[in-house]
Structures are given as structure tokens and as C-alpha cells.
Amino acid sequence: MATCLLPGMTDLSISSLMQTEEGRRVMSCLQCGVCVGACPYGDVMDYPPRRIIAMLRAGMVEKVFLSDSLLACVACYTCMYKCPRDIRLTDTILPLAKEQVLVHQPDLPAELQRALQNTLRYGNPMGESSRKRAAWVKTCPVPVRIFAEDPRPADVLWFVECYTSYYPRGQDCSRATARLFHALGIDFAILGNEEKCAGECGRLTWEPGLYETLMDYNMAVFGKYQFRRVVTSCPHAHNAFLNRYRSLGFRWELHHVAPFLALHLDSLKRLLTRKLNYRVTYHDSCCLGRQNEFFDQPRALLDAIPGIRRVEMTHNRGNSICCGGGGGGMWLDTYYKSKGYERLSERRVKEALATGADVLAISCPYEVSRFEDALKVLGADKRMIVRDVTELLVESLGD
Amino acid sequence: MNVLVILKMVPDVVEELEVAENGAALDVEAARMMLSESDDHALEEALLLKERLGGKVTVVALDAPDVDEALYTALAKGADRVVKIEGLDQPLTTSLAAAAVCEVLRTQPDLLPADLILTGAQAIDDLDGLMAPLVAHHLRLPYLGVITGVAADEAAKFATVVKEYSGGVRGEFEVPLPAVLGVQSAERPPRYVPVAKIRAVMKTGRIETAAAPVMADGGLALTEVLALNKPEEAGGAEILSGAPEEAAGKLCGVLAERGVL
Q: B231 at the A interface (CB within 8 A)?
């Protein structure tokens, strides 16, 4: 099953892409170079998007495949967002080119290889036991229904995702989300140990085969239960469901937690009674922001918290700088360091610190570890803390 | 250079291990199996030899849960032929596994001769690393273990192998072929194979099967497992609770009390 294909494509190759309308759009590239200037790693890439297209036109694209240049692509959607020709670079030509890089690279960076193998075997990139995916539920202060234990229909299937299931600070976010769902009276259940990574980074990284395996698996599990809506904690999963799972019959109403909670803003406001004396700056995640333009909803949630003063970073909303975790970057930090690249999470945290804020608010599970690590590396972890929007909301809940 | 690789599945220790009801074996039903890590390195070394010298790589494995996945992956990586030995109850001791594999190698046409037989130097259920030397013993072939590199001449008369010793010491040996080598690690990490390629091989590739030999008296069972137990929780650890400052204060108190500070 070739579910990563665009309409008109016969196989997962660039030549097949070129036969489609999107392929013709790629060839209409103006070579203006906006994509390179906007790319957070455009200065270190041998083959940024503009050059890849130029090489393609010159019949020399094989050279791109033999270079490790595309390992620096963090799939942040900036090139695509800025392209005056509306070429869907991050969704089309870049993943196809990256896949060829994977095939041609003699040695894949060990961290990335391990993450991809773990995702296939355990359903999560960390290599944690798939049988312990729902273990965090036992530490949750409110009940969390697991479909396998209680298969009654639910209004919301909450697709928790990997870092929010396993990574301790991610679990903080999950406990906060569960508390908010309870406070709002939402009828929800999770897949528990039956859930596996939605696989978005597989497609945007190098691995359409891994992505399709995970899509087939998760769709089969979805089919076992009855629910009306899917709400996920991970913008990457949201992206996957919205753009690719549809081809397998994903028809449920879909939300990411932050915009979903924003739909309940009036009810939430009544519950947010504790004043938080924080100066907060919000980081727009790539998938939630640039890709789906949920810029206002997380800010509206923060503005609903009494006492919070919100400030913006220089790069915000569509201009936000990627945390460096997308497109496989989450598992390439050692590689980037070996190349002498600046870690994007550190670049971003420097901007956040410059605002004078004491809280960096986020809404993507990748960002907790990336920004907390970056603050430690910069020696600034006493000046600023990282909090998911849900954590700040819970902190403001009355007793 | 024709290389035969012996693979085996071992319990995945990422998952909890359980003792079977008889109290003397691992609960295989509860365990999740995965390819033994050093066997994966043996396969990689075989594929590197094929790339350098040509020839074929044949993989042989005893049947076990999820072994098909490991065998299809081997095909996707570049193995030419994979053979699964069916009909033996799991789990086997290493001596029984070695005897069964060698019996199949001897009786199944066209598996032997091979210029080299590679397998992992160790496995988590074979810490003594007996598999390779036992195979060499059964087949009356020379053996070298804890290997980290193999070079061979094109005529496949001799191989030069690097053997690792403790303290970072390495030895280089020349061994006449055919020979059996226990591979500690390949010259490069086992390669990544895209999942799409594995999925394609699952549709087009073929796992050959061979019937397990009838082992007289259940094989030569040299040892018997009397009991298997999970580690008992010891009461020696004291968890210091409280806020970081409070816990740090308690820790300093403990260290001072023990004379460390």
C-alpha cells in the first residue's frame, strides 16, 4: 500500500512526483532563494531546497542523494511556508529526496538508526517497552479510561503519543491534560498499550515504510473502538492524522489538545482561579503553527490564566524558529554537534531569554526536553523554566 | 567466499522476564524475542565479506517467535538464502541448539561446505559463548572467538581475523578455511534497512524450512536447570524524600554519619 503517495504518483520516486501537478509546481520554482534564507540550517546545507530543485532540473539530483546535506533538514515547514510559488517542499520533494539519502548513506547516524529501529519494534523511538506505554496512568491523579479494559464508546479518543507516555516531563503534560479533561467533564479514553507512534517523523524523516507500517497498525486499532473525536497531545501526530491517515479512511473529527481546549475557553476561564505571577513567552511549534496555523489558540489559553503577562519572541507565529526536533532532528543532536552546527533549541532559547520571560510555554512534547536541555547547556535553567500550556492551566486551576 | 551465518532469537530484556510455572525455565509465552545482538554483528560481517569478495551469504536459524521477521530482515539486508529449522521445543540449551543446527547442516543438501561459519560470540542466554566452539567441535573445524574483523583471500584458503582481548589488546590470527568464528562485533555497526524494503521482501522473499533432526535421548543434555528465580528485592536502599534542599540535607547527614564527609 503506497499511502505516502500524492494523487497521480505511481511510486515513491521523484520522477513519479514530477508527473503530478505538485511536480509541475516544483519545476516552476523561481530560484529566488527565500527557502534557503528562511531555513534554520540553510547556511550549513550543501543542498538546500532551491539547489535541490536546480540539481533536479539539471539532471544531477543523484549528487544530492550521495551527500549527507539533507540530514540537516528538520522538517520545520519554513521553506514551504515562505515559498512564493506555494511549492509544498516539506511535504513532497524533501521527504522523497531524504529517503534516497537514507538508501545511499553508507552509515546512518547511530542515534537516528536506533530511533527508527525502536519505533518499528516498540512503537516509540526511545526503545521503551510497548507493554508499559500506559504505565503513567497509575501516577495520574484522575482516572484515565483505557479502551482495552473498558471498551464502552467514548466521545474523545485521546491519542497520547510517545514522549507524553514515557518521558517523565512529558508524563507531567499527560497528567495535566487528563486533569483538564476531567475538569471540563469530557468523556475520553486512551488506547493504552495498544497505541503506537503515529509515525509522522518516519515520513518526514526518511522512512515511508516505517510510516506505513505504523499507519496500518494504528488504523486497525482505531477500528476496534467507538469514538467521535480524536484529540492528540502531539502536533506531529495531529499532522499525520490530518494529512496522511485520511487516505486510509481516518474520518474522525481531529484536534490537538491546545486548540481543543481553546474551544472550551469559556468553561476553562471559570475554573482558572489561581493567579500565576509569570512572565511567559510562547513558542509556536512547527506542526501546530506554520503547518496548521494554530497561532492564536495557545495564546488565548495563556491569556486566560490570571496574572500571566505574555511577551513575544522576535521570531514568532509563522516566523518561529524550530526547536530542532522535527524531521529526525530529535535523534541527530550528536551528529549536528560533530558537524559544528548550532543546536536550534539553543538558538531558540536565547531568543526566549532575551524577552525577559521566566516561563517558556510550549505545546509540543518534543520541546520540553529540547528546551530544558538547552537552558541547562546555556547555564540559564535558573532564569527560565519550560512549561506545557496544559501544565500552566492546571497550575491555575482552583482546588 | 560463501559464508554461513547462524542466528538465534533471545528474550528481549526491554520487556519484563517471567519464570515459567515449572520454576525452572523462562516463560517463553510472556517473553518477547529478538535477534541476538552479536548474531546481528555476525550477519553484518558476513555481508561485508560478500561485498568485498563476492560469494553468497546463507542464514540458518532455529524456529522461535518472531524469527521470520529477523530472517526477512536478513534477506532485505542482502543475505541470499535463509533457512529456518522447525520442530524443536523452545527453549533449548546451547549444547542442544548447536547439536541440532550441526545435524541439519550435515544432512540438508547444499548448506555445506561453507568457507566460513559465523555466529555471535555470546548471547544473553549464552554468556559463556559456547555456540560457536560447539559448532566447530561438531563439524571438526577450527574455531576462533571474540572476533572483531575478518579478511580473507579470494581463493578462500585462509582468513586473517582480529580477536579482541581485555584491556584493549588485539591479536591477529591466520586461520585455514573452512572455519567457525564467534563474532563479537562487526567492523561497522549492523546496517539499517528501510522498512519498505523489508515489507517488499516479505511479499517476494522465501524462507526455506528444514525439519529438526530427531535427537537421540532428547540430545546430549549435559546440564539441567534446577530452578530459576527473579532477583529478590534487597532492603538495603534508603530513598531520601522531600524537596531537593531537604533531600540534599538528609544526604549530607547520611554521608557525615558514615564518615564520608
A: no
Q: Is the pLDDT of residue B56 over 50?
A: yes
Q: Which residues pair with A157 in a beta bridge?
A: A189, A230
Q: What is the pLDDT of residue A96?
A: 81
Please state which CATH number belongs to domain B3-218.
3.40.50.620
- Cα distance from N-terminal residue to C-terminal residue, chain B: 63
Of A116, A122, A208, the CB nearest to B192: A116
Q: Do B199 and A209 touch (CB under 8 A)?
A: yes
Confidence band (pLDDT; 50, 70, 90) for B90? low
CB A165 within 8 A of CB A131: no
- Bridge partners of A310? A280
C-beta pairs of B156-159 under 8 Å, 24+ apart in sequence:
B156/B1, B156/B2, B156/B53, B156/B115, B159/B116
Break chain A into its structural domains and give their ranges.
14-104, 110-262, 270-396
pTM: 0.90
B194 chain-A contacts, CB cut-off 8 A: 99, 102-103, 206-207, 209-210
Fold of A110-262: Rossmann fold (3.40.50)
Instruction: Give, in words, the CATH class of A270-396.
Output: alpha beta
B245-259 burial, b if ≥16 CB within 10 A, otherwise e? Answer: eeeeeeeeeeeeeee
State whether residue A168 is helix, strand or coil. helix
Common-topology check for domains A110-262 and A270-396: yes
**Chain-centroid distance, C-alpha B253:** 47
Do the chains contact at B188 and A122, CB–CB below 8 Å? no
- The three cell numbers of residue A222 are 482505531
Cell 543446527 locates to: B101
pLDDT tens, residue by residue, B113-157: 999 999 999 999 899 999 999 999 999 999 999 999 999 987 878
Q: Are A128 and B14 within 8 A, CB to CB?
A: yes
> What backbone torsions phi and psi does residue B146 show, to the nearest 5 degrees?
55, 50
